[in-house]
Amino acid sequence: MNKTSFQWFAMVAIALLSLQACKNNEGNSETLTATNDDSLLTSRGEYLVSIMGCDDCHSPKNMTPQGPELDMAHRLSGYPAQRALAKINPDVVKNGWVLFDGDLTAAVGPWGASFSANLTGDSTTGLGNWTEEQFKIAMTQGKAKGLEKSRDLLPPMPWQNFSHLHDEDIKAIFAYLKSLPHVKNVVPQPKTLSEL
Length: 196
Known about the structure:
By secondary structure, the chain is mainly α. 42% of the residues lie in helices and 9% in strands. The chain is built from 8 helices and 5 strands; from the N terminus they run H-H-H-H-E-E-H-E-E-E-H-H-H. The protein has helices at 3-25, 28-35, 38-51, 54-58, 90-94, 132-141, 159-162, 167-179, and strands at 61-64, 67-70, 99-100, 106-109, 112-115. A 3-stranded antiparallel β-sheet has the order 3-4-5. A hairpin with a 5-residue loop joins strand 3 and strand 4 (106-109). The longest helix has 23 residues, at 3-25. The radius of gyration is 19 Å and the shape is globular. Mean pLDDT is 86; it is low at 3-24 and 31-35.
């Protein structure tokens, strides 16, 4: 078997194993909620946060010779408050381009500049005072602070992808996020292009 055939075979095998794992995992959320076991619920939440890519945008990174690594002391705390946004040429993004800062915690596009939120349980700068219902509204309806009459969440937050999350999964994600070490980090408010 040549190298290309082997690689193709390996990719197909991984895909089939992934599909089987998903099939075996069906209904697992309901079982976890039914047991009301906090450790199982937060473990499920940790798993979901990991596979949904929350760290990609909500966790600051340390730049290393091997590339960016999560800053675990500030994990899921959003765009670092003390960091200044680099100077942006608004003409670039007016033409449809989107720019990201080096660790993906800020994005600039035709909408302006948006900054990833603090998802830790800090009561003044994170999710500490949020209810599970607010979290559900933010994740499934794309509303800032989980308030129905607030502004829409800005790109690149892919809330549309999460709009069909099961209530049990939202409960697990919320439980996990609330269990994280609280990081005080006041994320900047979004900016319009004219403010950049």
